Amino acid sequence: MKRIAADEKTRVAFRLNGRPREGYAEPRMLLVDFIRHELGALGTHVGCEHGVCGACTVSIDGRIARSCLVYAVQIDDASVMTVEGLAVEGKLTALQSAFTRHHALQCGFCTAGILISTTMFLEQNPHPTEDAVRHMLSGHICRCTAYNGMVQAILEVANAASPSIVDTAGSVEG
Amino acid sequence: METQESWIGRSIPRKEDPALLTGAARYMDDLSPVEGIRYAAILRSPHGHAEILKIDVSAAEAMPGVTGVVTGDDVARLSQPLANLFGLKMTYYPCARDRVRYYGEPVAVVVADNRYIAEDALDAISIEYRPLQAVVDPEDSTASSAPLLHEALASNVVHSRSFRYGEPETIFATAKHLTSIKTHYPRVASTPMETFGVIAHFQSAPDRYTVWSNFQGPFTMYPLMCAALKVPSPRVRLISPPASGGSFGIKQAIYPYIVLLAVASRKLGVPIKWTEDRLEHLAASSCASDRVVEMTGAFTKEGKLEAIAIKQLENVGAYLRPPEPAGLYRFHATLSGPYDVRHFTVENRAVVTNQMPSGLNRGYGGAQYCYPLERLMQRAAAELNIDPVELRRRNLIPTAAFPYECISGGLLESGDYQGALDLALRKFGIDEMRRMRDEARASGRLFGVGVACSVEAAGSNLAYVNLALTGEQRAGRLPKSGGSSTSSLTIDALGGIVVRIDGAPAGQGHETVVAQIVAEEIGVSPDDVTVMTELDTLRDSWSVSSGNYANRFSTTVVGAVGLAARAAATKLRRIAAPLLDVEPEAVVLRNGKAHASGGKNVAVSIRSLAAKSHWDTGGLPEGVSAGISETATMTQLGKDVDEQDRLRSAVTYSFQCDLAAVEVDRQTGSVNILKYVTVHDAGRLLNPQLADGQIWGGFAHGLGAAMLERVVYGRDGTLLSTTFVDYMCPTAVEIPPFEIGHVTSPSPNTLFGAKGLGDGCSMLTPAVIANALDDALGIPDLAPPFTPDRMWSLLSGLSPDADKGPRDSATRETTLPFADGGTVLKGGDELDLAAPPEQVWRLLFDVEAMQRILPGCKDLAETEPDHFAATIVIDIAGIGGEYVADIRIREKDEPRQATLVSNVSGRLGFGQGSATVTLSPLDDGARTRLAYRYEARVGGKVAGIGHRLLGSVVRVVLGEFFGALEEQIAAKPSGLLRRLRRRARLLAKAILSR
Amino acid sequence: MKPVKFAYARPQELSELTELLHSEGEDARILAGGLSLGAMLNMRLVTPRLLVDINHVQTLQRTQNAAEYVQTGALVRQADALLSPEIARDVPLLRAALSHVGHFQTRSRGTLAGSIAHADPSAELPLALTVLGGAIELASRRRSRVVNADSFFLSPLRTVRRPDEVVTAIRWPRRRNDERFAFREFALRAGDYAVVAVACKARVAKGVVEDLRLGFAGVADTPILLDVSFACGERTGEGLADAISARTKALEPTADLHASRDYRRQLAAVLTKAALMDVFTPKLESVS
Fold first, then answer.
1. B627 near B488, Cβ under 8 Å?
2. C58-173 is a CATH 3.40.50.800 domain
3. Which of A30, A102, B660, C287 fits A149 for a cystine, CB–CB 3.0-4.6 Å?
């Protein structure tokens, strides 16, 4: 049984966006603080730290998670995907491109989490209704856009049924 | 590349997006600009109003990893109080000293190796408070009996001014119809997703502060910071990060925190980073003021509005934090909005209360004014039996009347208000909607249509801030009409084009629009233009009006960019002219090249012209200086307040007309917005997609304010909307169908004809929805937010604020579980005990017995007769901790009755309560009936976060207490579970079917 | 908003887990999905010495079918249950309740058992379990026990679980062929906790109610059942729905920031009628 004392910093080794990474964390360190401040992956943002706003949403082993409600020590050996893992060599995914086309973001602070959520959502629901898209988005708070551009962008990608979203996400997860 | 039509006015993709979409953008918390940064956490008042009797930080300072602690005394030693507009003796430091005046007010700063340790140390600071009576309602606070917030002031009313324009007395005396309304517009906050962030770095020799923060202006706050930190400019150096996670004006209020962290850096000798958390943000960043407005309109019987009498009472919170009370004056130059009215009286007051200080919030001062004005129009239409749309039409400023100078000085320079109204009606399908309404009503449904109109100021100058001063007060001071923007454009030796602006944007897409303007003016593609939006007060040009607020971008910043680009273009033409063998005027810049107009098919690239300007300075035409580096300033139109209190406080005014159709569910009170149309006349649209993005965003804020959001305090000053669970922002599901239309009457006052549209619906939507609800329900007294329970209360004939308190109050007691509007819990019960009253009495008031029955009692001592000091552990599902309790027994009438008065305080909050216990003999004194009534006031974190469950928690604790008493009496061990289950059964009474 | 220091333990076996809780359960919190616990930790409302991460205990992952009930292990995630065809078929009320639980983003980690053990009186799953007459399996070092839902919840956030016990599984009574279900909820925003939720289970034969259970979330300290025994033997229809709905006047909800006491009572009545009409009307016999 793994056991870590409260003061003990333990080694956490995992895959971040497909690459092996490691760092040290005491048990109470939030995953989002770990990836941001220990590993310097600053693309994931902190919005509320009580699991409501969704800005910090990441994927852990293919499951979506609020990284403010997960502890770094929990992700040993896991595979974590953040917004930095979406575009490959600077090439935006179909979803990212649709976001810019539909002006689905303004300040961009909530966008990282929304992109991760949506990517996972479309894997499970390749052809969602607008209502389903809105309900999925209700797990995020955006204060700039009224969500309109996001809904349009997601529906456009879903209707185009472009396989690139799924492929990209899948390969990063590996 | 092909020849392009104009770049301006096209919806090109945003330059900002790739970095934002890939996680490459850098926000405030992403920065680590200096080595050795330590991390701050701020201890905050759990009280709405209290004296600080004692503060002990020694345990915190001694903790490993803690750099040090800064208290109010340090702040007072190392800085000056933050000034207010009137020089009032309202000592305002960014950290409280001997008194706290709002929930969340800073009382100490801990600096440590990381935020985790800093928060640990916060828990180790011990503070003794003496709670004071709080006042949260602005009207209550004006009473002479109200607790005085600032002892050096005679009253909580900190500002009072009246105005008169035209001949209002005459008009009112002869008016055919008067309509009056009173509204209380509640507090809302735009809650940007990125919270406040500051890195403060003090360095000596000379003393200076470098501060990275997401402060976004207005830079009128800069002198306040210098004064507070007691250094001359430029020894406070402000730097803003490349990306901002939203502001909506809120981040104006970061400046006291900048001072606080700067002082901490000075005291502790390290650079310090503070990233506000969401609980801090919701409690103590900023929000819009709430405002009580009484308005009376004098109408002709045809519905022409001729005069308005206005009384406004602004709740600015605990301190008059600049630029407040300017929110009262943002609309003053256009007192009748889009309507043609020439006679006014205005009485403005601002009052302090035990709420967080208010400040800029999207549509500063706008919603608080549009709401009563548009409700007045709606009520007048109903009273005069005139269609509300027709009433607007009769009062809107006619198109032929532009430019229209308002009686209070505002200049509405252009517009087609009637045309915009027509378009809105068409898009809305007014006839169809009315038909639907009639059908719905015929079948007994509650269906309403609402309309509202407004003007929107853009490019505000400082005159309106000055209007809060009387002519006498202004006389000795520098006049204020400042409004300008400076931009610089350089083209380096390789042809790289860099533009710097002083706009400090927060996600609106300014980089993109600036690039479009530059591309247009110098004939390149927006892709070729790099736009720097970071602002560094030591390196970049800035002025007091710099920043991101008041629709300043589309009017003023783009003007500066345009002028700088035109200057660069002129220089490029002069360099190109001899090479193309034409006059400079004949050079056309297009597609990255300078062409000779007039048929000559020759061109030279802009890149090589730039190269020449750097590499071959000797070969430049006579009088052309080396390099291409052009700085230009756009000076706004505007003027300071004149002797008649008239002012021109904005460059341009756009117009907006909104229509909404709503249906209210009689059974649940839910309001369904079936259709919503907004039409803007905002002049020329620089990028239509971004313009619509702003309108959508403003709508989400307006919708939130109308339907869900509210900053709520209990009457004791405890904040109740402390989390994103209770401060409810709309999600994608709550956004109704929404359509946008545009009419474009270019502004002659701006370089490209643009006006403003960023505030838009955030100011107007609550009024439109209210008007539609009024139409549906015929209920005049409506106060947002129109939540289902409030609407249902109205429909049931209950006041939504029924259990108490003033009508339309922003402090919404009604729905609180607590009797008098604070976090007060009342209750009682009775139980029969198998022992005579004398024995019960002994068990209740004997030290040893008390120790046994007091839940979680660790130790208890009788310090003097009937006065006990105890340490108790309260633990409800792991929530709780150790509390210090002071218990006194009063009105003792052995063995019949006694009252216990207690004060309890601990890490999660505090409580004060009293319980009266009555013992009556049963069965000839063999048994006892014990009856108790209690009243407890609970405050602090646990009340703010956990109010939903607080009543149950108190019942559980009492259940434990009396369970233990029974157990003592029965003198046998009894299972806790059984006792608790019994309690639960009692509570659920007969409705439980087991 | 950072938690206090705590130690972390990650047992792999149930025996390790119960041993740990036996020795340190008083000061420990059990971490499954972590949605509610994480927020309370970050706010320092709870300050445990030890966090026991049960996510790696394999035996808690299982869903098993017993004759009378579907047994979901403590680690069965809400999202998986929501997508499970077996749950939709065998426990339709759970399926209906789950669609109101949180968000896509929270259901992915949130567990069925975690929501029940957390015992928020406004939560959907404790209500569904109570109305179904389900049960909670608990294990400690020494013994296992099964507690019926209607005696599991004590008050907000409190249950009969002892500190040395862990919820190992939830028993969801399997649908009988003649049972109909309805779940109705009113929340202020998508995914929010219910202001009031109503769950209903009924057996109706030839237009006559044979059995009816009706329960509420958001109106008391725990999920509660309304005594509607008088309805048995009555003919279904709007009249009966109104009569039952009138019984909600006896509820004594507490008010909060978002809903007054009277309003909660009103919602209880409205939702009750809607839920009853759902089960009375054959074509809507199960609401999804």
1. no
2. no
3. A102
